[in-house]
């Protein structure tokens, strides 16, 4: 078939499917894009020619910012448990480099997205073209090379003939649970428009089987021995549990053996929050319950977790525990010198279920009954503590989150909550009571300000059956609120709760604790002193949201918020609920986080912070 490279690309993408457990779905649901001279005549023309409407094989969505469109693709793919995603087409130059942050976010969170940045002429006949970076050492370098370290697969299509093998490699990485992340095919603008004779076979429907690798028998035997020799095991459930759709298996395994479960941000909701073995959030933003268990456990069973510093409290949390790591990615399984079980989480739990406690002659294995009973007591106290934190007459942030949580848990569909950066993720991790595993969608791998609205749009595209509530701080809103306009354009309804505390509550607190005097963390006018300590900014974010096409409601107290949320959830159009919460001290952190403090300073508060830092630093153990 004689087609341009871009036409062949679009035709190919519209015929790719993923399959897991016998269920097939489109692998590339659609194409988000912003056009410029680097893609309008190539990918843009190809999309237009194939028919890019909502009912076409590869629908096109106009976004407002290239970083945001990658966030939208991530929100979609994550809510689809990584079985489907979006392509993102950009022009060359700034359009392409705007995607770097989104790509890093996708790769760090292990979420598949397909990026199609335009690139400068392969022939170089017109070089340097508008927006081309010239590297005096080599004409082979373009700004798109910044996407290499943040992509799990990167290729530049300098000849049409290179496209088929690059596409096959790209689809393989997108659908490989161990390798997935951002996949980038850089497309020189002349090659996009160049015609070539393609074999028809390239455009046949192709199904990509998403594997569930089973554990190796010897590794399974070692894992069983590790579990059976433990008395005080603790499961740390990460995002891998949810992506593998193994929450039921996790519950069954924990119950059968009396093992308490702590959850990371990505794993939150894996176990019902009111389960007697649910110790809640673990780590720096963890609960007293989970962290107490973590300090005393003799075996940590990490399931689908990357063990970030928030989970390990910068390697201060897990006492003398050994590690057993169940992960589809060998890279993660090998962390902390653990016993490794490289497998899909569901398959691993299935295999362990058949093997643990079945050693001939041995009684069915369970954790020390006192340990399980203690976990149940702590879980009970945790539920009371969470209920206390969320109650109150003043609209503090914990109360606000409690009101939103109740509103979602009252919905028949359970809703989804989306958040990423600021002071809310910590409060959400500790306090949120997920109605089900799909409800909690907090991006905390990259914790990227600006993910919230754009990511929420993607979540809603994946889950039109659910109400999607985006929680966004004023700082994050000011970085990237423009996708409200895209939601309005698409008739995709979001509820955005805009939490305006006039600056960076999170970094303000952190700044004070490290002796940095809260510099640059409150939004104030430049005052007479020359510092940013003047009056409040005359910035009205509620009016801003209305100007983007959203309906806007304002809430001043818990009852007002309940009423506004009820209205917003019942509405058909995107609605922003604007709230200025009452400032309140958050609960004290139950575990440390390593943020190095200045070793020398003239400021007394910095010296005091350094003393505290050095004391805590002594607890840090490498685990290996
Ligand atoms: C893109 C990006 N830049 C900087 C940071 C560092 N950072 C983390 S939270 C935060 C402030 C967030 O402010 P806001 O959204 O208002 O939330 P609040 O802390 O007030 O709850 C900053 C600057 C980040 N996470 N992401
Ligand atoms: Mg703020």
TrEMBL record:
Residues 421-578 form the Thiamine pyrophosphate enzyme TPP-binding domain. Pfam families: TPP_enzyme_C, TPP_enzyme_M, TPP_enzyme_N. InterPro entries: DHS-like_NAD/FAD-binding_dom, Myo_inos_IolD, THDP-binding, Thiamin_PyroP_enz_cen_dom, Thiamin_PyroP_enz_TPP-bd_dom, TPP-bd_CS, TPP_enz, TPP_enzyme_TPP-bd. Keywords: Hydrolase, Thiamine pyrophosphate. GO terms for molecular function: 3D-(3,5/4)-trihydroxycyclohexane-1,2-dione hydrolase activity. SUPFAM superfamilies: DHS-like NAD/FAD-binding domain (SSF52467), Thiamin diphosphate-binding fold (THDP-binding) (SSF52518). CDD domains: TPP_PYR_POX_like. The keyword Ribosomal protein does not apply. Residues 220-352 form the Thiamine pyrophosphate enzyme central domain. Residues 56-133 form the Thiamine pyrophosphate enzyme N-terminal TPP-binding domain. It is an enzyme of class 3 (hydrolase). The keyword Hydrolase applies. Its EC number is 3.7.1.22. Belongs to the TPP enzyme family. This is 3D-(3,5/4)-trihydroxycyclohexane-1,2-dione acylhydrolase (Decyclizing).
